[in-house]
From TrEMBL:
<dbReference type="InterPro" id="IPR014710">
    <property type="entry name" value="RmlC-like_jellyroll"/>
</dbReference>
<dbReference type="Pfam" id="PF07883">
    <property type="entry name" value="Cupin_2"/>
</dbReference>
<dbReference type="InterPro" id="IPR013096">
    <property type="entry name" value="Cupin_2"/>
</dbReference>
<dbReference type="InterPro" id="IPR011051">
    <property type="entry name" value="RmlC_Cupin_sf"/>
</dbReference>
<dbReference type="GO" id="GO:0046872">
    <property type="term" value="F:metal ion binding"/>
</dbReference>
<keyword id="KW-0479">Metal-binding</keyword>
<protein>
    <submittedName>
        <fullName>Cupin 2 conserved barrel domain protein</fullName>
    </submittedName>
</protein>
<feature type="domain" description="Cupin type-2">
    <location>
        <begin position="41"/>
        <end position="109"/>
    </location>
</feature>
<dbReference type="InterPro" id="IPR051610">
    <property type="entry name" value="GPI/OXD"/>
</dbReference>
Amino acid sequence: MSPATRFVTEENKIVEHLPWGPHEWLCRPDLVEAQLLQLVRVNMPPGQGHAFHRHPTMEEIIYVVSGTCEQWVDQERKILRVGDVAHIPMDMVHGSYNVGDDTLVLLAILSPAKFEGPALIDVSTEEPWASLRGI
């Protein structure tokens, strides 16, 4: 698909299968002419989670479309439901966990779309993150 497209549909979205659930990329530089925005829909099965991590060069907004999310931003925990939002500042540790019985569907908006260095650094095996959830 040409990056000059203005529309992303079911047929041309990019799907990545990650351990915590399928990611449906709807906006990123290889789909559209995005410089500042990325949008991904995450479908997280019950009991799964995107363990504690950080994005060194991006900030993020997480919007709950359906399901129940145990959301951590730094060491603050909040249960998010449909319509709730979490904002994660650049380079701040966070984690999202499906604590409901149904698939958790999230929209994640990340910015910028183009950056230097790694997109994500996993810190889930480091303290205090490794024992923060107590499970």
